[in-house]
Specification:
TIM Barrel, alpha/beta, two-stranded antiparallel sheet
């Protein structure tokens, strides 16, 4: 049996749930787990070197077209509601609130350059307990950013995942989604820093925000840009049972990890373990709009067939660039789901299923 983990990065408080639904309904209907690397409190002003917002901040939910003026028959319930309001204001208020079923999300999604962002300092790492949002957020609307980005590109606001209740309800209603912690703010090289106290605060604050939103305590950590300092590796290993990243460098590893790292290198094993923490690598973003669609499947099949466990990384926002769905790319993702579900010797699993130790890594 070979195992595949689907890891989709950058879900955040500004992600339209309709995008995730469009991408992953074929996976969910087949019972295939999807691991969403979720930003606990997204920095809404993170920018690329050319000054553009990161891609996970640029995908917007399209507003519905204006409806035609209602016919007299369609107006009848409204007239009844008005009459009821005149007779019993409290009753109609309750009915009116209960009738708000359509939830509008205003969301943004991630830029083309994932290697650098023009930020000079991270935003504040303490999320206010009462961030200013629209008064309608309690009825499911996505929160609005509190201010515009500053000229130097520093994020002007952060939004906690729990502020988008429509998105949270959607994710919780579909148990095949597995939420893993993706940094804290996702500002540039957020965990490529040396101060253990700040790293610890970011990790613990992010975990707390995910749990406050109603998600289980995350067991898996994914660093923004897959970049971690030595101090970050140590702090992550103390708190999480799985670390998913692109690669490991000897110069960044704690010295106590070196013997096991040498064993990994000698055996050419992609995955290894230090203490209670599984350390997983992936072969790059194989599901990416920046790869050739003609050769993408060959790369995926090669790695799936060669490895016991393959982590397939993708980014939801890449499928909706320029405010338009990339239909060929979306179709390719759906064909991937069909392929994985149709082969009995391949099992799609969640990161949390690795924790039991019953699934071989290499």
């Amino acid at each position: 049996m070979r195992y595949v983990i689907i890891r989709d990065d950058d879900t955040n408080a500004l992600t339209p749930s309709s995008c995730l639904e469009r991408l992953y309904r074929p996976f969910l209907d087949r019972g295939l787990p999807v691991n969403l690397a979720t930003i606990p409190a997204v920095a809404t002003g993170t920018r690329t070197p050319d000054g553009k917002l990161e891609g996970f901040l640029t995908v917007k939910e399209k507003l519905p077209q204006a409806a035609p003026f209602p016919s007299p028959a369609a107006m009848e319930p409204i007239r009844s509601l008005i009459a009821m309001a005149m007779a019993a204001p409290e009753t109609v208020s309750e009915k009116w609130e209960a009738s708000k079923a359509v939830e509008q999300e205003k969301s943004f999604g991630l830029g083309n350059n994932r290697s650098s962002v023009a930020t000079k300092a991270p935003p504040q790492i303490v999320v206010p307990s009462h961030t200013t949002t629209s008064s309608r957020n309690g009825h499911g609307e996505a929160p609005q950013a509190g201010a515009a980005p500053e000229k130097n590109g520093n994020p002007a606001a952060v939004l906690a995942i729990g502020q988008n209740q429509a998105l949270v309800r959607y994710l919780l209603a579909n148990p095949e989604y597995n939420i893993v912690q993706h940094g804290f703010h996702h500002d540039y090289l957020e965990f490529d820093r040396a101060d253990p106290a700040e790293i610890s605060q970011r990790l613990e604050s992010g975990t707390r925000l995910l749990m406050d939103a109603g998600f289980p305590r995350p067991q898996t950590f994914v660093a923004p840009y897959d970049k971690l300092s030595r101090s970050s590796l140590e702090e992550v290993a103390r708190r999480f049972q799985v670390l998913s990243t692109g690669w490991f460098e000897l110069k960044r590893l704690p010295r106590s990890w070196w013997p096991r790292y040498f064993c990994k290198k000698v055996s050419s094993a992609p995955h290894w373990r230090v203490g209670k923490t599984l350390l997983l690598t992936h072969p790059g973003c194989l599901l990416s709009c920046f790869r050739s669609y003609n050769t993408m499947l060959d790369g995926i099949l090669r790695h799936v067939n060669e490895q016991q466990l393959t982590v397939l990384v993708t980014h939801w926002w890449e499928y909706f660039r320029n405010q338009q769905p990339d239909e060929p790319f979306i179709n390719f993702l759906h064909e991937t789901a069909e392929y994985l579900a149709g082969h009995p010797d391949i099992k799609v699993i969640s990161f949390s299923e690795l924790v039991s130790g019953r699934i071989p890594l290499n």
